[in-house]
Amino acid sequence: MRKLANEELDRISIEEFKEVDKLPIVILLDNIRSLNNVGSAFRTSDAFLVEKIYLGGITGTPPHREIQKTALGATESVDWEHAPNPLTLINKLKADGYKIISIEQVEKSISLSDFSPVDNEKYCLVFGNEVFGVDQEVVNASDLCIEIPQHGTKHSLNISVSLGVVVWDFYSKLKR
Question: How far apart (Å, rounded) are the C-alpha atoms in residues 175 and 89?
């Protein structure tokens, strides 16, 4: 086997990315501290055609060197907006027909492996702070919570890993 060169990967341009049909998914980063995690969210969102990223509360915004280090230019392809008050944004998204799903360990959460996104439904996936998770008020405003099944000794994943797992799962289920 031979590794492919970048020019052999047949990637689309930023202009083509802006025009291509996206997944019916937006992401809300709820008070993310690490700018590297923010950059990773952009890069993953670019890879799996996420519609938009909302940077909630204290979450850092582009342009920033630390975001760019992991985003590798995805801040130019993926639409984004700062949302100073995540609850205000959630209310607007609900009014626009989005189902709000927090990725969090809560009572009555649904396992990611048991959740099947519905065609023609729009989703807002909420990922929370590295220490405190999704804010309880945001959890309360969510339509449901999804939990990533974990079977080891730890009870959490890094947000960039969680985002990759969940977005890939949605992508693979919606694109079959």
Answer: 27
Where do the domains of the chain lie, and which CATH numbers do they carry? 13-148+157-174 (3.40.1280.10)
Q: Quick: pLDDT tens for 22-74.
A: 999 999 999 999 999 999 999 999 999 999 999 999 999 999 999 999 999 99
Nearest to 30 by CA among 89, 78, 73, 77: 89
Nearest to 137 by CA among 30, 27, 59, 26: 30
| Residues 68-97 pLDDT 10s | 999 999 999 999 999 999 999 999 999 999
Beta carbons within 10 angstroms of residue 74's beta carbon: 25
Residue tagged 């449901």 (tokens)? 144
**pTM as predicted:** 0.95
Name the DSSP class of 22.
P
Angle made by CA atoms 22, 75, 169, in degrees to the nearest 5: 40
Residue 151 burial (10 A CB sphere; 0-12, 13-18, 19+): exposed
